[in-house]
Amino acid sequence: MKITHKVYFSNAVLIALIVLISAFALHDLDQILTKFRFTVIADQLNASFLTMRLAEKNYFLYGDLDTLSEIDEMIGTATSSMEAVKADIIRAVGHDNYKKLNRKLVAYGHRVDETRQAAKEGVGLEGKRRTQMRLRLAGRHLKEFSENITEMERDRVGRIIAGSKTILFYSFLGVVFFALFFTYLIVNNIGLSLRKVVEFTQMISRGNYEKIAERYPNNEMGAVISAVNTMAEDLQNREKEILQSKRLASIGILVAGVAHELNNPLNNISMMAQTYVEVYENLQKEQRIEFMQRVEEETERLRIIIKNLLDFSRAKERHLVENKANNVVQKTIALVRNMLNISNIQLQLDLADDLPTIYVDEHQVQQVLVNITTNAIQAMGDTGVLFLRSHYISDVDEIEIEVRDTGSGIESKFLDHIFDPFFTTKEEGGTGLGLWVSYGIIKNHGGNLRVESSADDGTAFFITLPSCKSVKECCNGKS
Ligand SMILES: Nc1ncnc2c1ncn2[C@@H]1O[C@H](COP(=O)(O)OP(=O)(O)O)[C@@H](O)[C@H]1O
Ligand SMILES: [Mg+2]
């Protein structure tokens, strides 16, 4: 069910409940009003019945026939006022009670007539007493009946009010419970879906493009989840396209560079061979040897370029094992020790103890370290200090190896190009492939290679590699 439909539905149910409760309350109020109107009328009637009975007593005291006429008049007034509000009385106490009250009033009127008749006919003491008794009795019945039904109606009003209070209280509780329950259902529903979307977008930002779910709820949140899924798919496709175009671009640079780099020595060899053939007869033995040595040098240049390219292509076939970063650093030092000694360069080590292990191809990482330290040694020339430092960055669970020199530094305009294939500033012996190959190796290990350099302070390269714990295959291998 869609969320908007759920909201509409719950609102409709709430409105229906409130209408029902209001109808109940209105019905009760109407009943109370009817009863209230009756008690006002009844109070007036009771007052007039009381006046009649007082007049009745006066008659018995003084025997004045005019008093009986007054009672007659009062009975007439009461009858006509009862007639006027007949509908109200019937609605409040029912038809039967109205009739009974009317009959009692008529009976009282008859007794008044009877008493008057007896007085006129001058009946004996006994007859007089009997008619008086009957009149009194009729008066008392009338008054008592009227007071009783008034009291009954008052009770009934009290009961209706108490009942209404209870119904209103429980209805209010019901409405509140219902509103809270629906709000909880809807909020819970939206909250769950939103949490999923948040988790998913976090996953996307970490480069994981798995779908949130294969099936979504058929509501607005489902539409959001589906849109986010589509976005993830688009992002993934775009990332693939970018990677592909980057790969094509670097292959383009590589091919152009290879062609250019191979062309130069090949041209030289070809030119020297032609010249050699042309001038062969006139050449001394030493000159012939010199020619051949220069061909050999050019061939050596070709060999180095091809070796580097092969190194690069082999960089993809890795033999990963759990290893200690300091171990790889120490083995590299052994390889470059001789170069350091020749160039009179001092070595300063700062290797942290108890580093977490790394999961690497030892030879490849060693190749990276050799490339970087060779560059450093070349940049320092005859003298300088080479710093090698290793430490652990706990926030990202990575090992960092820093190679710092006190050499010439890198011009800022070259900084963006040093990792490009065939970029070199060296006039002799530079292939421009060392850093390019190194960058590829470190990236392939899930790490990073960056540089900081200035003409005053020299250059520092930072190699970061994930600790074995953060590499899925490594942990699996251990457990
Ligand atoms: N430690 C360093 N100090 C100064 N320049 C450096 C350093 N390391 C690298 N470079 C610069 O980066 C360029 C590319 O290095 P690299 O890829 O190893 O190729 P190559 O050493 O064959 O020139 C070098 O030619 C040099 O200009
Ligand atoms: Mg180099």
Task: Characterise this structure.
- The chain folds into two domains: 3-185, de novo design (two linked rop proteins); 317-478, Heat Shock Protein 90 (2-Layer Sandwich), CATH 3.30.565.10.
- It has eleven helices and seven strands.
- It has helices at 3-62, 65-84, 86-121, 125-205, 220-279, 285-314, 325-342, 362-380, 412-415, 434-444, 472-478, and strands at residues 321-323, 345-351, 358-360, 384-393, 398-405, 448-454, 458-466.
- A five-stranded mixed β-sheet has the order 2-4-5-7-6. It has a two-stranded antiparallel ribbon with strand order 1-3.
- A hairpin with a 4-residue loop joins strand 4 and strand 5 (398-405).
- The chain is rod-shaped.
- Bound molecules: adenosine-5'-diphosphate and magnesium ion.
- Magnesium ion is lined by residues 371, 374-375, 434.
Would you spell out the secondary-structure blueprint of this structure?
Blueprint: H1 3-62, H2 65-84, H3 86-121, H4 125-205, H5 220-279, H6 285-314, E1 321-323, H7 325-342, E2 345-351, E3 358-360, H8 362-380, E4 384-393, E5 398-405, H9 412-415, H10 434-444, E6 448-454, E7 458-466, H11 472-478
Parallel strand pairs: 2-4
Antiparallel strand pairs: 1-3, 4-5, 5-7, 6-7
Helix pairs in contact: 1-2, 1-3, 1-4, 2-3, 3-4, 4-5, 5-6, 6-10, 7-8, 8-10
The structure holds adenosine-5'-diphosphate and magnesium ion.
